[in-house]
Amino acid sequence: MLEAPVMVLETVAAHHIIKGGRLRQSLMMESLRFNPKRTPGVQPPLNMGNPPPGEIFSHFFDAAVFKLLCENTNKNAAKNLEKGKKFIWTEITPDEMKKFIGMLLYMAVLKLPKISDFWRQQTIFHVSFPATAMSRDRFMAILSNLNGPKKNEENDKKKGTEDYDHLHRVRPLMELICVNCKAIYHPRQHLAVDERMVGTKARLSIKQYMKAKPTKWGLKFFVLADINGYTIDFMLYTGKSKWASGKGLSFDVVAGLVNKDYLGSGYAIYTDNFYTSPLLFRHLRQQGFGACGTYRQGRVGVPTTQENALTKKSPRGSIRWIRDRDLLFVKWMDVREVSLCSTIHPVYSGDTVERWSKTGDGPQQKISFPRPTSTRCASLQEKPMTRQRFQEELTAHLLGVDVKNGPQKTRGNQHLPIPTSSGHTKSDRASMGRRRCKLCKKSTAWQCQECDVGLCLQPERNCYWQHHQDL
Fold this sequence. Notes:
Blueprint: E1 8-12, E2 15-19, E3 35-36, E4 41-42, H1 53-60, H2 63-82, H3 94-109, H4 129-133, H5 136-145, H6 152-156, H7 171-184, E5 185-186, E6 190-198, E7 208-209, E8 217-226, E9 231-236, H8 249-257, H9 260-263, E10 264-265, E11 268-271, H10 278-286, E12 290-294, E13 319-324, E14 327-333, E15 337-342, E16 352-358, E17 364-370, H11 387-399, E18 417-419, E19 435-436, E20 443-444, E21 446-448, H12 463-469
Parallel strand pairs: 6-11, 11-12
Antiparallel strand pairs: 1-2, 1-13, 3-10, 4-5, 6-8, 7-8, 8-9, 12-15, 13-14, 14-15, 16-17, 18-21, 19-20
């Protein structure tokens, strides 16, 4: 049976009146004992000092990740060459893959309309650095051959069926990074489950639209995050799953992300009204977790009684509540009505919040209003490094240069002549793969590896030498 609401807090000016009062201690829910599997916080060796972005990144993208990327990219390139595609290829190594990822991050910081614009020559929009890190043709060759594991063809045949895996090409990589996310950091007691959108221009059937997010179109990830924003676990939404429990997507997401075998017990899980339900909160309670979140009226299991209802005339700060066994349902009037469900909070423990309010005919002034305990959450006091600075330092680390000074040029030993047609058969080299010389505009079979431009290299016409004298 539902207990009748016995407490209403209303604000009259600055005085609080408690009606039908009970002792505050009697309203406390049964406390959960916090028992994490590991000491919360950053795990060794990253917990020593203040590691730079490059070192942090190396624990997420470790040797196993780069080995996976290189092996699959090399296999895909070999397959494409067998099919007759024309490009120059040498097997990519982990060090070169780091440079490739560094170039992707560089392009994310310094945005240009097209990828090829980063290697433009003889224009006021010329950007000098990219050609010193990697040639355009090599970058494009890696980009076009970057691929996932074997047996993609078998999975592609299952398109349109429930057995088709949308993530087959990236699942091994995602699983490695997900394992590393958990290994590097163990969360503190207060966690949140929410969605994050990752923007993409790719034409994918799994792209989603979320009106309330800054990035409205893209890939939707469900994430379990610490109060500091760290992503502990994640799953990419790909549509209806054959593994659904029948209890709803929101239930399956939280139940899948909140894992006591990894976390331990006694954690408090915070959700919004997409996830909050009596069924989920009781499941979490059985697993040893507390929960709190806003809820939707009319959801299965939510009390339908109007005895604790607020109205438009309810003064700001009004709090009404009702208990259904281990669940506490609280309604609070702020600017608008807020509905909360919790298994870990009392109704009210003396907390207040300041709001601008007009009293009578006078000017607006700040007034303290009561607020439920369940609306209070801890806040971060630390000031983190900005995302741009982190990304710039990480980019420089992956590219092997100093973020302030860039590459140190040594004349002559970084600019090597290479044939333009090394990827073609001997019979095709005379007519295919040749480029136009940057200086004399004649057809040439030679190019500079670093500058990525065609240059003549003949006794009577050494445009290669002339070009590099002008650098």
